[in-house]
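G., the chain you wanted modeled:
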Amino acid sequence: MHATQIAGDAALHQLKLCFGRDRFQVARQDPPWKVVRAFALPESGRLVHLHNVSGGVLAGDRLALDIEVEAGAGAQVTTTGATRLYRHRPGAVDSAQYSTFSVGDGALLEFLPDPVIPYAASRHAQRTEIRLGHGAALLWWEVLAPGRLAAGERFAFERLRVETSVYTPRRPIFLEDYVLEPERQDLRSPVRMLGYSHMASFCAAQEGRPPEFWRNLERQLSEIASAMTLPGRAVWGASALASDGLLVRGLTTSGRFVNDPLAEFWQAARLAITGAKCPLPRKIS
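Predicted structure as tokens:
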């Protein structure tokens, strides 16, 4: 299902990208979305940076991102900066972003965005749907940061809903749907984020791999998670999914304890799945 179908009749600002073996196409590009160019990766595939020229997501914004990776192609997608969610405006609908990824047979999608930062009084919904073809692979991460700490905005947003689904041709392998409302549910509760301020997720998946592959990779990433866990500052853990993938979660007290672990998890999983390492996506001005 494409983002335009998910959002119904809402006015959407759309970005549609298509990655092929020998081509890259921007099929649609509405402001504030902007893609300047694609960069060739060292072994194969293309790197693309997503720009938001407005500097963030404003009250009432309805953003749609549709990315197709054709069979056998490779796509590495990142952002040029954090996704900043700005204050809700009276009378405006909640802001929203609908992201849909279609990954063809034997293709590779790496979606490695910068953090989502909900500022004070923001209201936002984020829905991500990823569909993997036969033998298709996924490397994806997501980071939630707390807001402008220096301005006393630690978890001062009003509402954040996050829905994520990853499907293979046979079954859904990862389904998540949660709502954070700090005024109603204290995020510092022991059953939520305790004293931590940043939440990170990393998912690696490939349709058709045997369970033993994921058990071995789980052990490898669990060792990294143990090494990256710092008492009182960061805690990490890795777990295989029911099939075709694994998930890493982390809670930290600072963004300083997020980037290096995510890079380690990504590189280890990438090497196991593709047989090759790759530099982290470079940023451009």
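The mean pLDDT is 92.

Shout if anything looks off.
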